[in-house]
Amino acid sequence: MENRCVDVNKNKIKDSYGDDIFCSKDLPCTNGTCIYWGNPDFGVTSFDNILKSVLNVFIVITLEGWTAIMYKVRHSTGTVAYDAFFLIAVILGSFFILSLMVAVQSSYVS
Prior knowledge:
Layout: E1 3-6, E2 33-36, H1 50-61, H2 66-77, H3 83-109
Antiparallel strand pairs: 1-2
């Protein structure tokens, strides 16, 4: 997710929704050149190391902005194969594990 398509003036090329266009050696730019620009959201949205990965998985299981991360991964890889990870994380992480933690926590309170 570090590379973006840029025009000749080094301005990021946006798609019709206003999002950056990601590129790689497997997913080249149709118009413009592909250069290193850094990870989205000031480097927060990435799976480059374990801490950022845990943060992004936490964002996914809390259901707060997980679709934005899923779409960025989809656009940067050019495939929908990773959507299965996000759906499984939402189903297991949010609806099962997070509810289990809340139930255990509330049993200690009462």
